[in-house]
Automatic annotation (TrEMBL), chains A, B:
Residues 14-117 form the Nicotinate phosphoribosyltransferase N-terminal domain. Signal peptide: none annotated. It is an enzyme of class 6 (ligase). Catalyzes the first step in the biosynthesis of NAD from nicotinic acid, the ATP-dependent synthesis of beta-nicotinate D-ribonucleotide from nicotinate and 5-phospho-D-ribose 1-phosphate. Helps prevent cellular oxidative stress via its role in NAD biosynthesis. This is Nicotinate phosphoribosyltransferase. Residues 413-480 form the Nicotinate phosphoribosyltransferase C-terminal domain. One of its GO terms (biological process) is NAD+ biosynthetic process via the salvage pathway. It catalyses: 5-phospho-alpha-D-ribose 1-diphosphate + nicotinate + ATP + H2O = nicotinate beta-D-ribonucleotide + ADP + phosphate + diphosphate. Its EC number is 6.3.4.21. Keywords: Ligase, Magnesium, Manganese, Metal-binding, Phosphoprotein, Pyridine nucleotide biosynthesis, Transferase. Transiently phosphorylated on a His residue during the reaction cycle. Phosphorylation strongly increases the affinity for substrates and increases the rate of nicotinate D-ribonucleotide production. Dephosphorylation regenerates the low-affinity form of the enzyme, leading to product release. InterPro entries: Aldolase_TIM, NAPRTase_C, NAPRTase_N, Nic_PRibTrfase-Fam, Nic_PRibTrfase_pncB, Nicotinate_pribotase-like_C. Belongs to the NAPRTase family.
Amino acid sequence: QAAEREPSARAPPLLTDLYQFTMAYAYWRAGRHQEPAVFELFFRDNPFGGGFSLFAGLHDCLLFLRSFRFTDEDVEFLRSVLPPATDPAFFQFLRGLDCSGVTLRSVPEGTVVFPKVCVFQPCLKVCLQPVSAASLVISLVCSNAARFRLAAGPRRKLLEMGLRRAQGPDGGLTASRYTHIGGFDLTSNVQAGFLFGIPVAGTMAHSYVTSFTSLEEVWPQTLVAVSGDPDPVDIISLTKGWLSRVCELLGAEPGKIREGELAAFLSYAISYPQNFLPVIDSYSVGCSGLLNFCAVALALCELGYRPVGVRLDSGDLCRQSVDVRRVFRLCSEHFSISAFDSLIIVGTNNISEQSMAELNKKENQIDVVGVGTHLVTCTKQPSLGCVYKLVEVRGRPRMKISEDPQKSTVPGRKSVYRLLDADGHPFLDLACLAVESPPEAGVSLRCFPLGCDDSPVSVTPAQATCLRQDVFTKGQVRRDRLTT
Amino acid sequence: QAAEREPSARAPPLLTDLYQFTMAYAYWRAGRHQEPAVFELFFRDNPFGGGFSLFAGLHDCLLFLRSFRFTDEDVEFLRSVLPPATDPAFFQFLRGLDCSGVTLRSVPEGTVVFPKVCVFQPCLKVCLQPVSAASLVISLVCSNAARFRLAAGPRRKLLEMGLRRAQGPDGGLTASRYTHIGGFDLTSNVQAGFLFGIPVAGTMAHSYVTSFTSLEEVWPQTLVAVSGDPDPVDIISLTKGWLSRVCELLGAEPGKIREGELAAFLSYAISYPQNFLPVIDSYSVGCSGLLNFCAVALALCELGYRPVGVRLDSGDLCRQSVDVRRVFRLCSEHFSISAFDSLIIVGTNNISEQSMAELNKKENQIDVVGVGTHLVTCTKQPSLGCVYKLVEVRGRPRMKISEDPQKSTVPGRKSVYRLLDADGHPFLDLACLAVESPPEAGVSLRCFPLGCDDSPVSVTPAQATCLRQDVFTKGQVRRDRLTT
């Protein structure tokens, strides 16, 4: 993966709820604005009915904290929306505010985390409530990506292509970044490649294929072989010859083959002879697209190039991929073109986590799966109940009691330890008050696992690690602590 | 509504799928890059099983088109991801590309639109495919907002507060903008107020309430009356007196009242005596929050201020709102404080479209409803099957045929007319080829309504309007045509 560029923070300081400012003013007015406070962020339940979540969004939080500053224009706008009675000195105070007094303890980006355990803990002055970096924590789409990864198995490559279905432009960028952390190999989103170094992929849309109608539109009509003869070869004649042989081999009807599709494939192949991977279902895979692909790919092989493969975007992907693979093997054997044994088949057609899981049960020959809508919009559960609560002010624990018992909070600043067994496998995340002594390797301790009624159990960790790290202190990002 | 600021485009030109660039190169290589092409965008089905959609996203599209330009850095990045064989002259060409050759016909932002009718029609050179402004069309969240608006009825005010549940920072901004177009009155998102002039609202979170423990934390402890005596009044003593009277009136137990909550309310009221609207469920609405509110609000009234109301954020909002209103009326009558008759009750607790509709069936006293998660993530249907297809190249109609019949497209550039009856009500959207003559008022025409098998019907419009307008021509935004 390429190094990441240093983008500017994507969240301006006004991107927060108005009440953060009204509260900040009330604290300031009461002279309490420099009091230290601790907030904790946790999830109530794992998404998608699953057994884990992946923590993500830290990168954006840190950019936000580092660059947090109100401009004159920001402050003027706040003056216009806060009540007229607001003391003008408060706006002066805002103008000078930054995050040099914030300490953030967080689990690294991409950590497997569990419900009700605090994963993200900012310590700040109460006046800094507008710094609601917590709204940048995005674990849902990352966890969703991890589930697609598990469903796909380790062999298959996964391509994220959700840009056009995400919530607005930046929703798409966020999704590309966090699905990559969640286990996707590639993205179609060029800006995500530019900003984050994620490998980008993609070749052609149906519109490219349907924009051609005849071979007369192909230009140039020649291609130079990879090695040897410097004279350009008439690739159209060469391909037509291969098309006849392919039709004969497969017993196909030449009359059903779309000339526009062949022209589109040829035109693309001439531009990118080493990167030929067309979408072959614009008309009919079996009667046209596959035959046209084979003809162009065989012509490329004859000139020493290696075609890459095909994309299927509609219909029964499994069945079609098996048919396509069978034709590739036939061509490889019949024409002795071994490059046809390593062609890849990309499948993209409204893939959900469920249809991904079914791919593994049905016979298929799909090497790369592209996922869009269901991945980035998290169709199965489009939001995660993320909770961000005040737990301590001036060193004193604070609690929220609620008419909904599950909305009550556990007071006090917590430490979280991940306990490992003798094989190095984690078996328990232990939350205790920060003032309690940490668990020790080899020493038995009593704890109360959530969901196991109220009786304590004794466990002896072979090893205990601090789950969270200081990732931001004194206005600086701790670069060494950011990812797992 | 305040005038909008002129934000820079929120989508950089690289925020598109890689295949847009590989195709653009292949067109350029074939010398076809200046050929005119027409794309059309439509939805296949209305979202949420409903009967309409609202069109939205045009504003972002136009900003994008207007500022579309590749920087040197963009072009260098493209050079690094496109195959090495790509002709360097292509990158020179990209560097000079802009949207001066694009014409966009679109329905105005906020128009009610229906499935399968093209609402957005860019005419461009084929090389401009990277200009995928269509990915900025966001109708789902806008349509969702309109459904909440319909469910809420015209009386109730609606507050959008989805920032922390949206897809990343800009997902939140997008949602604030388009829910406002869809009928929401207010947003909690300050940046949306700043950029788009949407009225912002909000007062305090539970963390503010729970951060106080005793009346000693209240500072200053005095407030000056609105008119008359310039001497500051001891508001704490005044409120304590009112609290005793309220407890007596309601037969409440003073021992259950949380002093920290009272301190928080007082502290806020001293800062914002004309904007007092606390959240009253941090501990118990009936045993503490409501009593504390009444005491502080009565003290404010005594000093000539007008408290605004309360927010409920948990439990049965309908039942609680009725109880709260009853107490307000009791106070109004018993203490002769008429300001208590116009207090507002804000309800915010995971409101869905369904629970909004149920509000209208159950007795309740909620004046303002705040909606977050279900609004911005569109829980009921988190994506809209938006289709963007090539329909014409060089004046010749193009079609995509598919193994999925519903994925086939209707070829040719279409015009769309909205037909109105004699009362001025729209009754049919008519799509025909642009080359066909337009419908005329009072003249009968034959058409084939979708879903009514294949038999034609005759209709006579009293009026026919062009549904789409030229909103972008020659690199310029047509400002007069943007909204309904």
